[in-house]
Amino acid sequence: MHVETLSIFCDVVRHGSFSRGAIARSVSQSAASQAVRQLEKQLGAELIDRSKRPWELTPEGAIFFKGCQEIVERYRELEDAVRHHQDPSAHRVRVASIYSVGLQHLSQYVDQFQALVPGAAVDLDYMQPDQVRMRVLSDQSDLGLLSFAVSGRDLTAIPWKDQLMVVAYPPSHRLAALATFQGGIRPSELSGERFVALDRVLPVRREIDKFLRRHEVEVEITAEFDNVETVKQAVDEGAGIAILPEATLRREAKRGTLGQARLLLAPGEPPLVRPLSIVHRRKRRLNRAVMEFIRLLLEDAGDTAAERDPASVTADAAGNGRVSAPSPSDRPTAAVVAARGAHV
Questions:
Q1: Is this prediction's pTM over 0.85?
Q2: Which fold is adopted by the domain 3-86?
Q3: What is the mean pLDDT of the chain?
């Protein structure tokens, strides 16, 4: 009985699907089905009741699943222990992140992490939110970075930071002068504007839609994209304005290629923010390197004063956003040593 076979069974059960479990383990659906059949044959017991729709674990399957998780997790801990014994610097943290967190942002965390865990590395992969969850649930990633995440039966979500959402526009747009004169943009002043939106399946898009409906604002959707970088490019090319996390616009604001302005809201109304969380599989034992990486992320959770105080984001006549300098506690602290697939 191979550990990989046990891992496939665990993923099939966690995802409640042979196809999704197979994707999580990078095998075919047929291979996942055969692996479970092989286990049932070896045990002489049916683990999954396929006569029900959706299928369910049998009592024997529930017992076996609980034990499987412990075996697979313990085996991986032993692998880590052996590697660390051979090479004390072999600790590796595997992180799956949504695209818009950005390699440039995460790369701030390099020096202190290396100092605290000498020789440790971070494998960083960027992907869609559902893929992040799948990678974490299947133990292919130790941690995930997600927006609008909540703790549940399978995942633990650790609140990380709230990113202020601002209006993004070309420097020559009429909103540039308006933002300079008023110190920001009222939601009602967005009515009728051509608007570049994020994909409807993304949580941040749903929150933006709710915000616009709450303020009775109707915009003309000209395009929808699944990542922030493409939205910014479309805004730069004149396809419309957008509402995006302020942190994702700093490079463009500094270069003067895009303008940004805060949303002027009624007194007492909470600002529109995108909450980011660090997620890991519930009840998973996290090694020292992973715990240290979490600690460093949380230590730097403030990011900048702009994210704590919307009033610190202003716009000049050219439409270039200015962000007040970070406080000492907001200085970069740790970092990514190695990165893969960084599609920011």
A1: no
A2: Arc Repressor Mutant, subunit A (1.10.10)
A3: 82
